[in-house]
Design goal:
With 107 residues, this protein is mainly alpha-helical. The chain has a domain of 67 residues: Arc Repressor Mutant, subunit A (Orthogonal Bundle). It has four helices and two strands.
């Protein structure tokens, strides 16, 4: 998943359903970029078009993340928590934990 889709998905998870215009203004993206990402996320089943807006399928996303993280040592973060340290960062929500052995330690 590219960074733009990741940011859009995180925005929808944290803020709830939004129109294309609202999401584009909030994320600083063009409406055409947001529309393209909406199409890709919708085709993947990760968001659902609603009346004039679109919303994230949070339960499905969390299920997929739990399945993906089963083989890793770090837990999946709570994507619904807007106070999480990565909730407003431009980094992917899928890279928000520090797993043992991944940080550079100096001897």
């Amino acid at each position: 998943m590219n960074r733009t889709r990741s940011r859009l998905l995180r925005f929808l998870i944290v803020h709830g359903p939004a129109s294309c215009g609202h999401a584009s203004r909030a994320l600083g993206l063009s409406q055409s970029t947001v529309r393209r990402q909406i199409t890709l996320l919708s085709d993947a089943g990760l968001i659902t078009p609603l009346a004039g807006t679109f919303g994230a399928q949070v339960d499905l996303i969390e299920k997929h993340l739990q399945e993906l993280s089963a083989g890793f040592q770090c837990p999946v973060t709570d994507l619904r928590n807007p106070d999480h340290e990565d909730a407003h960062s431009s980094e992917s929500p899928f890279h928000s934990c520090e797993c043992p052995g991944t940080s550079e330690e100096t001897s």
